[in-house]
Amino acid sequence: MKISVVIPYVNGPHFLEDCLESLKDQTWKDFEVLLIQDKPSKYLTEKENVNVVEEPTNIVDNYKKFFPICVYHTTNTSGVSAARNIGIEKAVGEYVYFLDSDDYLFHNTLEKLVKAVDEGQASVAYGTIVDTWFKRIVFFDSYDDDVEQVNTASEEATMNATEGDDEEDYHKKVITEQKPSEAVIDLIGKKRGLVAISALNLLIKRELLIKNEIVFDEQVLFYADMSFVARTLQLAKNAVSVADARYVKRKHNDPIHYPAITQIKTEDKFSNMLHAYENTVNAVGDHDVIAYLLAFKLINYYTNYHATKIRRSEQSYWQGERFSSMQELITKIPTEITANLSGYKNKLVKRLIKGDLSATKRVVNIHLGSKKVRKIKSNPRAFACYLYFHLFTKMKMKDNWVLFESFFGKSYSDSPKYIYEYLNQAYPNEYKCIWVINDKKTKIPYGAIKVKRFSIRYAYYFARCKYDVLNVRQPNWIRKRKGNVFLETWHGTPLKRLVFDQEEVCGASPLHKQQFYRQSRDWDYLISDNGFSTETFKRAFLFHNEIVECGYPRNDVLYAPDKEARIIKLKDQLGIPKDKKTILYAPTWRDDEYYGKGEYKFALKLDLHELKRQLGDEYVLLLRTHYYIADSIDTTGIEDFAFNVSKYNDISELYLISDLLITDYSSVFFDYANLRRPILFYTYDLEKYRDMLRGFYLDIEEDMPGPLLFTEEEVIAAIKDIANIEKKYQDKYDEFYERFCHVDDGDASKRIVERVFRNKQGV
């Protein structure tokens, strides 16, 4: 047997399946797999954490026909170190290879590593690590083969090493004059912080490990790879780099259920780091080049992370025992290292060695203060945020002030609009209302104060208003004050899987789950439109506060007694011909097609000129893209047929004037169904959207109240035959209406206002 692949496993069967699938597809076949089943970490403290072992038996059985696979269990000691040590002990391969159960390989990774050790007569071969947030099928669908190596490091590691520090360190004379090997530079010197040193994607001769008793330190959960990698490199006869042997490190976008080790928050990380550092330096010798590189990283940790804790943390141990522990370790660092420091680092280390905490605080205060000033000068938002924390949140909260925000301040619309209007009609002059609106020209009735999102006034009112009514999440930096009431109206019955019901987050913000979890803990009330949404929100949002199943306030207008008069007025306002029927096309965004956070691409898959040629005598077309979509749609030359109403504030009013809706996976059809008008689904990328990007709650091929269409020709044909389609789908439409629209009746705004603002039960 050439290779023993050692895989520690606790939970996350969806990760493990990708991992084993990548081994099945390896071009090198002479290997065994040792799956070491471990116990859940004692550090899993969130009530949502999966803290039981999710048995891998069924998955393992599926792969036994492809390669030898044995399952072992940790016993007295648990943790990844104990699991890997069992793997080393039980391995029969000439080489050992460590693979985490949440990661996967390129198809030829093992073959390239084996070829390198054979040709170079090497004890170690190592490849490239590529980071991703995505499962295997999504990653390889979009992988760019020209991508450069990514040094995997957690968010903490990034904080611990400022940009460029480590790169400068391994170029310093005190390092280069010792002529470190390429492997030492690659696997230690170039890593971003101590936590990023990793034994992954190393093919290591087992004899080297056994002969020299190289094992992982089972006394620590964090930083255990440090001493293992250092000793392996120091004792290896030869270590060769194989740049195109790629290992995919899958970062966890669900740290609530399945946190990676680097995402676990515990005070033990500090003691683990010091223990691992000291043991490693003792093992390699404090004047070895590896020890020098580690010393620079420890100094980076202290000056870039620990020092800020001395200033900002409320925990006294950063100024007490941890300060003393760092002093003890850094004092032992050879002077040829500390003599290479300059500027801020030099000042901090000198004061640390002297044990002068007061002087350290002064240096840190000046440094952080100057950084804050520079940030405020370059970013006005930073000043608003600064005032929010240091001034506005110290002011008294106003019990009758209400802040409203819809779609990040982009419009006066959606459920916040209708709650606001009912509140002012039912209780005039009782509440001072503030509307977050970026366009100050927007007309808002009842005299609301208008503020721009992220402005100083925005921060002021968010801090002082008792009530906050939003249809999307509040900014990350907002902190709920005692007495605050957050009403989250949400923005639709979900077809697409949400948050913790998604295995993957393929959008522009891979930390979506973590951010959503923290922000949604602040919501006191969450509006639901039906029983299906209520159960979905509880599960997908991990929401434990009150869900008010009152219908969507934004749908009240669809039941307004004067809606016919509103339709005439709206058509006049938008210039829509009254002698033609109106089609509303309202597509959603695609998670994997984006420019950046909150800005998504969209390519129209309909030829507007062809639609006009075939349908223009009877219809006009309204184009309404999702508020996330940044691309505009060109209607030049067909302005009398295609009306781009993407910037029109209130889509509910567009429903009123539309005789027919075309959508894809947007939740708009749940609301539009209240009108009992025909709906067509243009799902040209159904397979990708359903199977790779999001997935659906409903059986889209069975449950929809209208046909699925896949080509432009089918769309045109369906519109021409809309009367027969209505008859064909009538029963399905009725079932859909009873399931999803039965709560809406025109009084949702009243019900939620009475519940939240007047504290009435059972409304």
TrEMBL record:
PANTHER family according to UniProt: TEICHOIC ACID GLYCEROL-PHOSPHATE PRIMASE (PTHR37316), TEICHOIC ACID GLYCEROL-PHOSPHATE TRANSFERASE (PTHR37316:SF3)
Membrane topology listed for this record: Peripheral membrane protein
SUPFAM superfamilies given in the database record: Nucleotide-diphospho-sugar transferases, UDP-Glycosyltransferase/glycogen phosphorylase
Family indicated by similarity: Belongs to the CDP-glycerol glycerophosphotransferase family.
GO BP terms: teichoic acid biosynthetic process
Domain of life of the organism encoding this protein: Bacteria
GO molecular function, one term: CDP-glycerol glycerophosphotransferase activity
Organism name: Anaerosporobacter mobilis DSM 15930
Keywords from the named record: Cell membrane, Membrane, Teichoic acid biosynthesis, Transferase
Protein name in the entry: CDP-glycerol glycerophosphotransferase
Subcellular location: Cell membrane
Residues in Glycosyltransferase 2-like domain copies: 4-130
TM regions (residue ranges): none
Keyword Secreted appears in the UniProt entry: no
A GO term from the CC aspect: plasma membrane
Record has Metal-binding as a keyword: no
